[in-house]
Design goal:
By secondary structure, the protein is mainly alpha-helical. Helix content is 63%, strand content 5%. The chain has 24 helices and eight strands. Strands 5-4-3-6-8-7 form a six-stranded mixed β-sheet. α1 packs antiparallel against α5, α8 runs parallel beside α10 and α17 runs antiparallel to α18. The longest helix has 29 residues.
Length: 563
């Protein structure tokens, strides 16, 4: 066997070994206590109910929430959730399975991209950095679209970048076709940003490098055909079934959402700065050094740093794009984490055997100070942040603060002893995993908005003709846990669009109709906030039978409960 063959065998073995290791470790991390807490509202309830109704009705073209048309997002994530529901049923862990799987795929994607660009060690470190970043981990266990969109965008952009390294032939073609495929899947997950962001990053990158001839090598005609084959059919079918879809989806949900305050999610331009710094914790300590290390020394050297430039444009342009939007939510910033993880992975890999790596000791100091400051903030504000009914969460938060303090002490000891990057990196990984595990374990006590407890009390008593009414509110997780649609009174919210274009009187009724039904012979259950119930009870005009209650909500019936 030739020396080249031996190197290829070793390289292949290393790929397989690394992938197995990452799948095992990251899989355990993302799968830990996946179903331990109720669905968070409104997001997890919403993005679980839509696929549940698809499974029940068999309509996989028109998304509906509580029987009402819902056109804010495309359907790929709903389809995936439908598969999970069909195979595993309605459980918190099965509904969160896809975000966790996408988080794992994101780690593998970053590992593969980092390895191909900067070497084996860079890829492994990048995967570890991404998986233990606070925001990335937190969103790996939430039923929303952002994790899937982030990973598909990362796969698309890395496929493009790696494709530019390939010589003409089948390899290059597959990478670029992969780019178009993943961009189409990202578009099918969260709309036009699935193609807009890649076009923006690639366009500015080519402009800076002044390499417009690259457009001739990216298989544009066949790639666009592949993109349309994947992304166009559903958009056509849903538009044919719902003529009102194009205007609402493209104009209202894309352009007006970005350019106006119509969704009432306006935040200042600097909104994502603290989210990035905290969300990337603990690796924020090495962020500035990693970017500085990757920057070309001069404009003339930009071609020698083309890959790092691509990654920095990816992170920077996405950050600017969403910062300029008039609609901001925390998860929007997630797509910048994969390129930053690769840049940090590259920096730490090069510092691995260099005690005098520029910026590494200042990173240690920042890490130490940040950990102590975060621990102090937690302990100082703890009694203000934790309401009386969630005092059980107190012990978890104290443990998290203790872990941060221990992490800071370990870092300080390593700095004092002059330990190298490997020892500090291992310590940070261990401390991060412990911190995230305790954070996850305590999260079950934090969210008090779920009505799972009341739904599970109600569900065994429900019969076919019974009606369940959300009075002056809509509990997004209630239809999921009851596995049936409910009636809504005195609230429209995000159901307003569907309510305006079709007859939804089966699910949405006015006050007068509700009280007529409440006094009818049929069995009607009401779920409402405690303060509303107190007002109705003192009014004295109607009779209520209390079935169950929590600190925030009550479950009532218009007749004595069945045995």
């Amino acid at each position: 066997m030739s020396a080249m063959s031996v190197r290829q065998d070793v390289s292949s073995h290393a790929w397989g070994r690394d992938l197995c290791l990452l799948i095992l470790l990251a899989g355990v991390l993302f799968g830990f206590m996946l179903g331990s807490r109720p669905l968070a509202v409104p997001d997890e309830g919403r993005y679980s109910e839509i696929p549940r109704e698809m499974v029940v009705t068999g309509d996989y073209i028109t998304p509906r929430i509580n029987g009402v048309k819902y056109f804010e997002k495309p359907v790929l994530f709903y389809w995936l959730e439908s598969v999970s529901i069909r195979f595993f049923g309605i459980h918190e862990w099965s509904l969160r399975l896809w975000p966790a799987l996408f988080a794992l795929l994101g780690v593998l994607t970053v590992y593969g991209g980092g390895r191909r660009l900067y070497g084996h060690r860079s890829g492994l470190i990048a995967g570890a950095v991404l998986s233990t970043s606070l925001l990335y981990y937190a969103l790996s266990r939430v039923v929303i679209l952002d994790m899937a969109m982030t990973v598909l965008l990362a796969a698309a952009l890395l496929a493009f970048l790696l494709g530019t390294h390939e010589p003409p032939g089948a390899g290059r073609r597959l990478f670029f076709w992969g780019f178009y495929l993943f961009a189409a899947l990202a578009t099918m997950t969260k709309g036009l940003i699935g193609i807009l962001i890649p076009m923006m990053v690639i366009g500015v990158w080519i402009l800076i490098l002044n390499e417009w001839r690259m457009l001739k090598m990216i298989y544009l005609p066949s790639g666009l055909a592949l993109f349309l084959i994947v992304a166009a059919p559903w958009h056509i079918l849903v538009s044919q079934a719902n003529p009102e879809f194009p205007k609402f989806y493209f104009i209202h949900e894309h352009f007006l959402r970005y350019l106006t305050k119509i969704h009432k999610r306006y935040e200042p331009a600097w909104y994502f700065i603290p989210i990035l710094l905290l969300g990337l914790f603990p690796w924020t300590a090495f962020l500035v050094q990693s970017i500085r290390h990757s920057l070309p020394a001069s404009w003339r050297e930009r071609h020698e740093h083309r890959d790092a430039l691509f990654l920095m444009l990816w992170a920077g342009l996405v950050f600017i794009f969403f910062s300029a939007s008039n609609s901001k939510l925390i998860p929007y910033i997630l797509p910048i984490f994969p390129p930053l993880a690769i840049l940090i992975g590259r920096y730490l890999a090069e510092a691995w055997d260099r005690a005098n790596m520029p910026g590494i000791r200042s990173g240690y100091v920042i890490l130490l100070v940040t950990a102590l400051a975060l621990a102090a903030a937690i302990m100082t504000e703890i009694h203000h942040l934790i309401p009386p009914e969630t005092q059980r969460l107190l012990i978890y938060i104290k443990v998290m603060a203790l872990i941060l303090i221990l992490g800071a002490l370990f870092t300080g000891v390593h700095v004092r002893r002059g330990s190298g990057v490997p020892m500090v990196f291992a310590s940070v990984i261990i401390i991060s995993v412990l911190f995230l595990a305790v954070l996850n374990a305590g999260s079950v006590f934090y969210d008090r908005n779920s009505v799972k407890e009341l739904a599970l009390v109600l569900k065994p008593s429900l019969q076919t003709g019974d009606e369940v009414v959300c009075y002056h509110g809509y509990y997004q997780d209630l239809p999921v846990y009851l596995e049936r649609c409910v009636t809504v009174t005195g609230w429209t919210g995000e159901l307003k669009f569907g309510n305006g274009i079709e007859d939804v009187s089966r699910w949405m009724i006015n006050e007068e109709t509700f009280w007529q039904r409440w006094q009818s012979p049929a069995t009607v259950y009401m779920l409402t906030r405690r303060e509303i119930y107190d007002g109705l009870r003192h009014d004295g005009r109607w009779r209520f039978y209390l079935i169950a209650q929590t600190d925030e909500n009550v479950l009532l019936c218009n007749r004595e409960s069945r045995p």
